[in-house]
Amino acid sequence: MVLPRDPLQFAVVREDPRVEESLLRERSAERALLIASGGCTALHLRARLPELRLTLVEPNPAQVQHVERKLAALRQNTRSEFNIDDDRTDGLHECGNFERLFRLLRAVLDLWVVSAAERRVRLADAAADWRDVIEHPYWPVAFSTAFADDLLVTMFGPDAVQHAEPGSYPGYFRRRIEAGLVAADRDRNPWLHHVLLGHYLPAAVTWPPFLQEPPRDLEPFEVLPVTLLEVDSFAPYDFVQLSNVLDWMSETDCRALAGRLGTELRPGSRVLWRQLNDPRDLVGHFESAFKFSEIRDGQLTESERSLFYDAVHLGTRR
Fold it and tell me: pTM surpassing 0.90?
């Protein structure tokens, strides 16, 4: 039987929601617009900032349904559904297309580099040395297998890789994971563990932030089932989070979105986005209406512990 194409692209939000939390607290933001994706950031913010009025924007119905499934699992207090110490492929954090790429990565590691059991032992040990893994000749091969351009284009379409140097994704992701393996928090970084294990370790300190402290309000989120450029108005929001959607957008659409945000947001409102293997200077599209700080952007990039982004940008409406 030929397998059907799965409409769920992302089971997990591979972003550190503590970045958003800290910025929302700084200005006591009251209303925020957020990319839904896998729902992790939204769930964390609802738990930590229950008074925040949060609206999700998501054009893919499968992603919205996935967030609803996470809310249902939390209502039933079934944290086992979230791939805690369990790498089953129908778990709520293993069932997206992007997660299959990491499954492919792990398969190559299992066959030629280091077993899943050994990876688990080392990830639980803050003192573990990963140099023999990183220096293994098949280590880069695992990334070139899982993140080849033709595989990414087939899965996500050409927009996903349009701004990156051709063939650069295997090296990009390899460098990002290697940075995580030598970081001081490698024994408690849930994003690193999920990439290399397909699950989280049993200790709660190793779980995604929203599972460490789940929200009490488990009612459905307000969702706008449109793209960012189709949002009726950004005026009601004092914080707009763009995830890394700009990486997927053309220069024309980036300029159009920046123009709308600059026109519709009130002074003091903020916009946040991440960039993944996208070398463009997107700040330039926003600078006429927003203030930026290279120092602050560097600090935010450093504090982003999901490991996936080489740039985080925060703009404040003038």
Answer: yes
